[in-house]
Amino acid sequence: MLHQVQAGFDDDGIYVMPAAALAQLLDKAVARGCAVRSMVEARQEPTAGRVLALTFDDGFQSDYSLAAPLMLDRGQSATFFITTSFVGTAGYVGWPAVRELAALGFEVASHSHGHPFLSRLPTAALLADLRESRQRLEDAISRPVPGLALPFGDGSRRVFDAAWRAGYQYVATSMPGRNRPGQRVLGRISVHRRFPGGLLDAILDGRTWPLWRLGAEYRLKALIKACVGFDNYRRLRRRIAEYY
Q1: Which positions ≥6 away from 50 have C-beta within 8 Å?
Q2: 44: number of CA atoms within 13 Å, CB side?
Q3: 171 near 150, Cβ under 8 Å?
Q4: What is the pTM of this model?
Q5: Could you report the per-residue pLDDT of 99-144, keeping only the tens digit for each?
Q6: Sign of CA dihedral 231, 235, 236, 238
Q7: Does the first or last residue of the chain, that is N or C, have fewer Cβ atoms within 10 Å of its Cβ?
Q8: What pLDDT, on a 0 to 100 scale, did the predictor assign at position 17?
């Protein structure tokens, strides 16, 4: 799971990845025998070799202008989870770019309409948000949109049930994990500019211990968020990032 890509190496947030670093990631995957594909492709029946499902959240303009060409040059694919209320606003893709991504063979999927904490919404508002996002995307690209990625990784049984009712076939979470074909609730690994290179290499080599480590870190962060609240957690994380 990635977010925003940038041309240089400016220090502009932990979830911003330099384009050169993304290119290195794509080449590493190939060198280790991993086919880089979209989520919807990875959910299909197993193929020879291993598959790395690559996703980009939110719908940043740089994902279209910088990341997509890197993958096209290598014959690779990915899923772009689009927050539909962001489309056409500063820094984000417009509808022509969304349509072009789909036409180029990338999967276009939903990251909700308003990027809310879905579990905090009343059921009627939750369903309305998920249905609006899916409908806007399907109207734009003229094809089904089976996938949803949870904003903030915020999910619950009620959110999953609402996703199925809204017509989605799979939900991508932020919980680290390895997925199997046909699985409906999918894990993802957040890769960012501070992600340890050795850990990434081990994941691409198909080792299991990184998933145990990342899963433990994820559960610890979830416990901290539950204790101090998400907003306080984000402030604490920013303060810590200033020193490291």
Answers
A1: 33, 34, 35, 206
A2: 7
A3: yes
A4: 0.88
A5: 999 999 999 999 999 999 999 999 999 999 999 999 999 999 999 9
A6: positive
A7: C
A8: 84
